[in-house]
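Notes from the 1:1 (GR / supervisor)

We went over the backlog. Supervisor wanted to see one worked example end to end before approving the batch request, so GR pasted a single chain during the call. The sequence is below; no edits were made to it. Supervisor asked that the structure be written out right there so they could see what the output format looks like.
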Amino acid sequence: MNIPPDYTRRRQGWVGTMRSNFFTGLVIIAPIALTAWLIWSVVGWIDARVWAIVPDGYQPDRYIQTLFNIQLSEQYDIRGFGLIVFLVFTFFVGWLGKGFVGRSLLRWAEGLVHRMPVVRTIYSGVKQIAETVFNQKNNSFDKACLIQYPRKGIWVIGFVSTPVRGELISHAPEGDTLVSIFVPTTPNPTSGFLLFVPTRDITELDMSVEDAAKLVISAGLVYPNDIVTK
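Structure output shown during the call:
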């Protein structure tokens, strides 16, 4: 049986349209679904750990039974109450830590920790990470740039951090300064390489740090569309 060529083309066109629509839907749904799932999971994880240390008499479902004068047959997981308690507790600790009494207690507790051989190493590392991640000062990357790495003729995107300080200044080329450059990896930009590059070898880009990060994460598939190349 001979199938007309126009029928085959129409069928292929219909299948191609359906496939294109399906993948377009995935592109729209996947980020929303993954983001919602991640938030829901994190909130549930915090709830589980907060309510595990709260006595049964103070569980939120008990208050609901008292408020509405109803009897629940089983304990209900009210998602989000534990997160609220955690936020309030964290705000309170932060407020207390800024006061004289809080700072004194913190110094006393850190003094005890620093006398424990293994604990002090773990505590110092976690504290440095937390201070870096949650620092309220504007210590983010200044600019996106291009540098030649790992050899001349090969260009990579980097992020300008800060001019070097301390001993490294004495090793800078004469008449130039060294700048800290973070070169991220693809598709995970949280890992990468720290390079100290002379300023004359750095080509700053007009694109923002966010656009440069998108370019790195997408492995070169997503380019900023607000900059016109001349």
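Supervisor's comment: Residues 103 and 202 are 43 Å apart (CA to CA).
Batch request approved.
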